[in-house]
Amino acid sequence: MPRFLHTADWQIGRLFSSFDPEDALPLAEARLTAVERLAALACTNEVDAVLVAGDVFDAQTVSERTIRRMFNAMAGFSGPWVLISGNHDAALAESVWTRARRLGAVPAHVHLALRPEPLLLEACRTAILPAPLSQRHTYGDSTAWFDAAETPAGWLRLGLAHGSVQGILAESMVDATNPIAPDRAARARLDYLALGDWHGGKRIEARCWYSGTPEPDRFKANDSGQALLVEIDAPGAEPRVQALRTAQFDWLELSASLRVASDLDGLLQRLQGLPAHTVLSLQLEGQLALDLHQRLNAALAVLRGRLRHLSVEASALSLAPTDEDIAALQADGYLAEVIAELRELGAAGPAPSSEEPGEAEIAREALALLTATLAQRRAELSA
Q: Element (H or E) spanning 5, and its range?
C-alpha cells in the first residue's frame, strides 16, 4: 500500500519584516525546523516519498547558508523527496535552484522536478507528473500536459502542481494567475493531485488536495500548520487522506469590545489560557475607565513576555476617566484649571457629521491623555 506525505509552501527564508527582530527570527527559524518535523513524520509513517508542491523558498535571493540549511533539514528522511518550483521560487534560467545545484547542496535522494516530464519512482511503482512554474505568473494551466502524459501500466499516477484551482478558492477569478482546472485529476486519470499555493489545507475533491503550509505565517483560520498523509491501495482506488500537525506556533486573531469590568474580566481570562507558542493579533475597541485601562495595560505587558508574539490594535479603544478618576489625581493650580476646561469642552454635544473630529471630541481625547499621564506619573512617584 503506497503511502506519501504531501506538503507545500515552506517559503524558507521568509523574513517577517513587519515583526520586531526578537519575534521575526524565531518565526523564520520555525520554517526550517518544520522541515525537520516533516522528515520525522515521513520516517514514523514509513512513507514511500515526500511530495513538495512548490514555494519551497520564499525568494530567489535567499542566502547560500539558507539553501544549505534547508537541504540539511531534510536529512532525517532518506527516502525520495520530490520538489517542484512555485511562484516564489520559479525555475528561471538563473534561480535559487540553479544556485543550489552549483553549490552541490542537493542530496542524491532529493529530486528537483523542474521540467514538465514524468518522474518514475520504481520502488513504489509510482509516476509523478510535475507542473513546476518557470515564471512567477502564468495565465495558462501548467497541468494541461498531464492529460496526454504516458506512464507505465499498473503504476500509480500522481500530479504535483502549484497554483489556483479555478472557481474554488475564495480569491480565484477568471483571470487568476497560475490557474489549474478543477477537474484536472479526473481528466488526467490521476490517483492523486498534490497542490500548493493556498497556505491552508483544503479538499478540492477526493483526489485533489491542498496541504497548506507546514508552519502558519498569517492570521487566518484555514487549517494551516499541517501536512497530509496520503494512502492509496492500488491504481484507481480512492486515496485516504489524513492531516498531520506540523506547526510549532499557533497564529490567532482576536477582537474584543471593552466597556465595563466584566468585559475586561472575560478577555483577560481568555488571554491567560493561551499557550506560550501563540502568535496573537488583538483588536480592541470601546471605552474604559482609568483603573480598568491600567489593569488592561498591565495584563498586556505580562502577556507580551509570555507569548511568542503579541500585536495590539487599540486605536478604537479610548480612555474615559470618571469623576472619581480625576478627583483621585488631586491636581491643583494650573493643571486643575486645564482639567476643568477640558471637562467643560468635552461635555458639549456630539460634533456635526464630518471626517474631522469636533472640539468636544478633541477635548475628551486630551482629557483622557492628560489623565493617563498624570496617573502614570503618580504611580512612578509612589514607586
A: strand 3-7
More confident of the two residues 347 and 315: 315
The pLDDT confidence band at residue 146, using thresholds 50, 70 and 90, is very high
* pTM of the entire predicted model: 0.85
With beta carbons less than 8 A apart as the criterion, state whether 258 and 317 touch. yes
Q: Which alpha helices (DSSP H) does 213-307 contain, by range? A: 261-272, 290-306
- Measured CA to CA, the distance from residue 378 to residue 383 in angstroms comes to 9
How far are the Cα atoms of 195, 263, 273, 339, 367 from residue 325, in angstroms, in the given order? 58, 19, 31, 12, 11
| Cβ atoms within 10 Å of 140's Cβ, excluding its own | 8
CB environment 354-377: b (16+ within 10 A), e (fewer): eeeebebbebbebbbebbbebbee
- The DSSP code sequence of 295-324 is HHHHHHHHHHHHSSEEEEEEEEEEE---HH
Residue 102 corresponds to which cell in the numbers above? 552549483
Alpha carbon distance, N-terminus to C-terminus of the chain: 69
